[in-house]
Amino acid sequence: MTTGPIVFTLNGTHRALPPGTSPTMTLLDWLRGPAGLTGTKEGCAEGDCGACTVVIEEADGARVPVNACLAMLGQVHGRALRTVEGLGSPAAPHPIQRALAEADATQCGFCTPGIVMTAWAHSREGGDVHDALAGNLCRCTGYRPIVEAIGGLHDDGAAPAPAPSGLATRLEAAGQVFHRPATLEALLALRAAHPDAWLLSGGTDLGLRVSEKREAPALVICLSDVPELNGLEAGPEGLRVGAAASYRRLLAACAADPAMAPFAGLLRRLGSRQIRGMGTIGGNLGTASPIGDALPPLLALGATLRLVGPEGTREMAVEEFLTGYRTNALQSGEVIQDVLIPRPPAGALFVAEKLSKRPDQDITTVGLSAVIRLERGRVALARIALGGTGPRAERCAPAEVALLGQPWKRETVEAAAAALEAAIAPLSDLRASAEYRRLAAGNLLRRLWHRQAEAA
Predict the structure, then answer these.
(1) Contacts of 216 (CB under 8 A, 6+ apart)
(2) 3-class DSSP state of 14
(3) What pLDDT, in 10s, does the model give residues 165-209?
(4) What CA–CA distance (Å, rounded) separates 197 from 179?
(5) Cα separation of 75 and 205, whole Å?
(6) Largest CA distance in the chain
(7) Phi, psi angles (nearest 5°) of residue 422
(8) Relative orientation angle of helices 434-455 and 410-423, to the nearest 10 degrees
(9) Which pairing describes strands 80-82 and 7-10: parallel, antiparallel, or unpaired?
(10) What is the mean pLDDT of residues 369-389?
(11) What is the four-CA torsion angle of 54, 361, 368, 328, rounded to 10 degrees?
(12) 396 within 8 A of 385, measured Cβ to Cβ
């Protein structure tokens, strides 16, 4: 384990930060403070508005937009970053900056630097413009001129800046140690020695404790450099996804697999491109939130986890791993290594639904995922999983029992929906009342039948 400074490439230039720089300082605070790069703005400090968007330049040429308000300096150690100051200058603006100006796509300008960086990433990554902009809020202009300007952009062809090498794995500041283990063995040794340390992967949840609550944790173990936690491969059984692999990578894998198209559709609504560039499925599982977007589809598909700790490796169904409200079955010293996500059976119906007040960038109010297989017109397999309707994401056995062995018709689904509504006991909160959640969950199951009937 080597101790050294925080280093990264910023706008093409190698930067080594002074000894004692806090590794949990947000990238946004450092940019606007010591770095003097005030083009990156602070809007919400919680990853919603996109005013602080910067771009990670990957070695393969990919451009990943991220929220600087959630990223800690220790997380960007060894990466190549670009801010709006690294694109153009007042005398020679980048084509993206010129296009936004000529389209009258800016007024107060506060959000514009973040939109420029999102556009720069989008010009290479491609896809839907509206999806690209889902993580950027503009308070003045409306979005028509912004969408039109970005829709006409082309990749500038710029090669990625080289990231630093020879990295330290231990970053220190007064009262703080930030570990970046490079092997699974080193990770497990650190976990055993420091059971109360923060386990940090994407940081889209833990980052809020730094950006909003201004916490300065004494010990952090970052998972980003452990190869076993960063794999993602498609095999005959399905997708095996490392706990520290980003949602961006998982979405790409699901989008490339027709059987996983419903999961891909749900993942496109999980946060924004900025959030998906940082967030991980291991984080969703580790926090065990009842409204974690990815949990119902994992339950419906019968996903299993590989857990590794001092006693070795063990496998466990996600259904058994989620034990209660924000609690899980991890034992002392254990970490999640990866998750195996099976494909739905050939010919089965698979849906992954989410209701929220906004289509994009919003927390789940009710989630329902289902896998239903028919044989000769009758239900031979039914796995129905819910989120947001109880203290944990879980399957609904009464609804499954009401379907199994029954003919696939409207009356059967109506009975199953009624059983589902009777079985759950959701809470009322600011997002929805308990009664709304109950009816909405049942209606999501009813909608599955109607959509399938219409497509038949």
Answers:
(1) 22, 24, 175, 176, 210
(2) strand
(3) 999 999 999 999 999 999 999 999 999 999 999 999 999 999 999
(4) 10
(5) 14
(6) 72
(7) -75, -25
(8) 160
(9) parallel
(10) 97
(11) 50
(12) yes
Return the amino acid letter for 401.
Answer: V
- Are residues 304 and 316 in contact, defined by beta-carbon separation less than 8 angstroms? yes
Locate 404 and state its tokens. 């199994």
C-alpha angle 158-159-162 in degrees, rounded to nearest 5: 140
Tokens at 319, concatenated: 């259904």
C-alpha span between 109 and 128 (Å, rounded): 23
pLDDT of amino acid 289: 95
CA distance 445 to 30: 48
Q: Which two tokens stand for residue 90?
A: 């007042």
CB 224 within 8 Å of CB 244:
yes
**Side chain identity, residue 195:** P
Rounded Cα gap, residues 339 and 315, in angstroms: 9
Other CB atoms closer than 10 Å to residue 82's CB: what's the count? 22
Look up residue 217 and give its two tokens.
Answer: 């944790």
Cα 370–376–381 angle (5° rounding)? Answer: 25
The answer to whether 256 and 245 have CB atoms below 8 angstroms apart is: no
Q: Scan for tokens 């990466």, then name that residue.
A: 79
For range 105-123, the mean pLDDT: 94
Q: Give the helix/strand (H/E) hosting 269.
A: none
Of 260, 254, 251, whose CA–CA distance to 300 is shortest?
A: 260
Integer angstrom CA distances of residue 381 from 10, 321, 348, 402: 53, 22, 9, 11
Q: Which of 48, 38, 54, 35 is nearest to 110 (CA)?
A: 38
308, 337 Cβ separation under 8 angstroms? yes
Residue 351: how many CA atoms within 13 Å on its side-chain side? 20
pLDDT in tens, 52-111: 999 999 999 999 999 999 999 999 999 999 999 999 888 999 999 999 999 999 889 899
Place of tokens 């070695």: 59
CA gap 442, 247 in Å, rounded: 28
Q: In the structure encoding, which two tokens stand for residue 70, read together?
A: 């959630």
Mean pLDDT, the chain, as a whole number? 96
- For residue 359, the model assigns a pLDDT of 85
Pairwise CA distance, residues 42 & 242, whole Å: 32
Q: Are 60 and 80 in contact (CB under 8 A)?
A: no
